[in-house]
Write a structure and sequence with these properties.
Layout lengths: L10 H51 L23 E11 L2 E10 L4 E10 L8
Antiparallel strand pairs: 1-2, 2-3
Length: 129
């Protein structure tokens, strides 16, 4: 049997095929891990902003005079996936009848933060705005 009649792959062909397979598997794994990281990040942001929206509804119904700094007044038990986290409500007076209410959630040891700010005006009427 001569060399041209032999069947099979050369060592170089096998090594190139393994290199290509390794690159495909590595790239697929990297894409999968990045996808999972982004899904987790999106879920965390959804939880944080839902909690901020809940707190905003409570803060806009509080009497203007009673607005004060502190922790969230709403239930934050659904934020457990972000634990440990901190919540903060900061109230600053812009003018005598205008206050800025800033609500903040911080998680991942301060690396992640979600903030929602809203102005409150003393209209002398209902507590709806």
């Amino acid at each position: 049997m001569t060399r041209n009649q032999e069947r099979g792959f050369s060592l170089i062909e096998v090594l190139v095929a393994m290199l290509i397979l390794t690159l495909v598997i590595t790239t697929t794994l990297a894409v999968f891990l990045e996808r999972n990281r982004r899904i987790q990040q999106a879920n965390e942001i959804i939880l944080a902003y839902q909690s901020l929206a809940n707190e905003a509804e409570v803060q806009r119904r509080i009497n203007f005079i009673e607005l004060a700094d502190g922790a969230f007044l709403t239930d934050t038990t659904f934020l457990k996936p972000l634990a440990p986290f901190t919540t903060l409500v900061s109230v600053t007076t812009r003018r005598p009848n205008v206050k800025d209410v800033t609500m903040t959630i911080t998680w991942r040891a301060g690396a992640k933060k979600a903030v929602l700010a809203m102005p409150r005006v003393n209209t002398g009427g209902e507590n709806l705005w």
